From TrEMBL:
<dbReference type="InterPro" id="IPR020852">
    <property type="entry name" value="RNR_Ib_NrdI_bac"/>
</dbReference>
<dbReference type="Pfam" id="PF07972">
    <property type="entry name" value="Flavodoxin_NdrI"/>
</dbReference>
<comment type="similarity">
    <text>Belongs to the NrdI family.</text>
</comment>
<dbReference type="InterPro" id="IPR029039">
    <property type="entry name" value="Flavoprotein-like_sf"/>
</dbReference>
<protein>
    <recommendedName>
        <fullName>Protein NrdI</fullName>
    </recommendedName>
</protein>
<feature type="region of interest" description="Disordered">
    <location>
        <begin position="14"/>
        <end position="36"/>
    </location>
</feature>
<comment type="function">
    <text>Probably involved in ribonucleotide reductase function.</text>
</comment>
<dbReference type="InterPro" id="IPR004465">
    <property type="entry name" value="RNR_NrdI"/>
</dbReference>
Length: 182
């Protein structure tokens, strides 16, 4: 499976791999601005349409947004987190082949940072079932590459039931995680 612009070997466990966005640095070489940092256990990306951001707001829990501009210094996570992201326009070069370009470039830039890859613990996908087998594909791709589970999938901005299920699921997930041996 490929992540479009992914370089093989990206894995949270080893931290050895690297996702590659051509012409972009993972840090702040493009700008003198410092990288924003977060201790939130939920990190999300939302595009200008903002549906995923609206879902994140419904959760009423601390969360941090990956910058919209790919040229902006990316977010740095300081604690383990779950990643929430939409899928955008994955296309397969041939029928049956893995789709490329499904993971937003901003998220690839965020995951290019080794410490961000090491801290990811799970992924939640936002999408639209009209896209058939590409529904929430970005979450599946990140799950496979970073070796973390897909915790949930929902459509567009999600329903209040989705939000309640995710909130309860995250509580249980983090309780379980904290009991794991280091
Ligand atoms: C150009 C385009 C391509 C999309 N491709 C997919 C796709 O391949 N799979 C999917 O599940 N959703 C796809 N979607 C739906 C978005 O993931 C969905 O609308 C999501 O809620 C957008 O979140 P955002 O507003 O936070 O960016 C696509 C939407 C657009 C506009």
């Amino acid at each position: 499976m490929t992540l479009g612009t992914v370089i093989p070997g990206a894995g949270a466990a080893s931290g050895s791999g690297r996702l590659h966005v051509p012409g972009r640095s993972a840090g702040n070489a493009d700008s003198p601005e410092p990288n924003p940092v977060t201790d939130a256990d939920l990190v999300y990306f939302t595009s200008a349409s903002g549906y995923t951001g609206r879902f994140a707001a419904k959760l009423n829990r601390p969360s941090a947004r990956i910058p919209l501009l790919t040229s902006a210094p990316t977010l740095l996570a300081r604690r383990p987190y779950v990643l929430l992201l939409p899928t955008y326009g994955g296309t397969a070069a041939q029928p049956g082949a893995a789709a490329k370009g499904a993971v937003p470039k901003q998220v690839i830039k965020f995951l290019n940072v080794e410490s961000n890859r090491e801290l990811i613990r799970g992924v939640i996908g936002a999408g639209n079932t009209n896209f058939g087998e590409n529904y929430c594909l970005a979450a599946d791709i990140i799950s496979a590459k970073c070796k973390v589970p897909v915790l949930y999938r929902f459509e567009l901005m999600g329903t209040s039931e989705d939000a309640a299920t995710v909130n309860q699921g995250l509580e249980e997930f983090w309780t379980h995680q904290s009991r794991k041996p280091a």
